Amino acid sequence: MHVLLIDDEWLVRAGLTTMLSGAEGITVVGEAGDGAGVVELVRSTRPDVVLMDLRMPGTDGITATAQLRDLPPAVLVLTTFDTDELVRRALRAGADGFLLKDTPPADLVAAIRRAARGEPTFSPGILRKLMAQIADGDEGRRARARSALATLTQSERRVAEAVGEGLSNAEIAASQFMSVTTIKSYVSRVLVKLEVANRVQIALLVHDAK
């Protein structure tokens, strides 16, 4: 599993490299001090996961995340403050999840593995807080979200709502008495119908519609 580090603090990058080098099956394939040239860096290093800082000089993490939206690696944002407006903007830009920088090493490694499998990952409590803030937004956004969800079948809507609760494919499959393969197919259809890039953005729409 290949990981790319984007953070303006070299001490953070050095610490992450040292920590991840001790994790079985994980290799840091590159690093950068800001998001400039991130597309070319991703294409040359071919990471499975990008660990992305948000506040950086030059090209910030939100801009860099948006540039990677149509490329394969999962983008896992690292941030310092769980109420930062930049975090919400990063999710809109296509981030697959985010963690606080004080996340314990074992939890960070587990989060990287989940992100590589396509499962969104967040520090405890942050997703609920962000969704509550987003759901309190303007009525126009709520109406647009409800209109988008109305294009789904009942089964697709149930899967989308389960994704919005942060459930994995296996957990959704168990609750819906379906196979994991079937749930993966449903998620793929939901992504296409809602015209979103990942599971996080499905969750955003679900919560926007409330």
TrEMBL record:
Residue ranges annotated for the Response regulatory domain, each copy included: 2-116
Modified residues (4-aspartylphosphate): D53
Boundaries of every HTH luxR-type domain copy: 145-210
A Pfam cross-reference name: Response_reg
Keywords: DNA-binding, Phosphoprotein, Transcription, Transcription regulation
Database matches in InterPro entries: CheY-like_superfamily, NreC/VraR/RcsB-like_REC, Sig_transdc_resp-reg_C-effctor, Sig_transdc_resp-reg_receiver, Tscrpt_reg_LuxR_C, WalR-like
UniProt key word S-adenosyl-L-methionine: no
Name listed for the protein in its UniProt record: Response regulator
Species this chain originates from: Allokutzneria oryzae
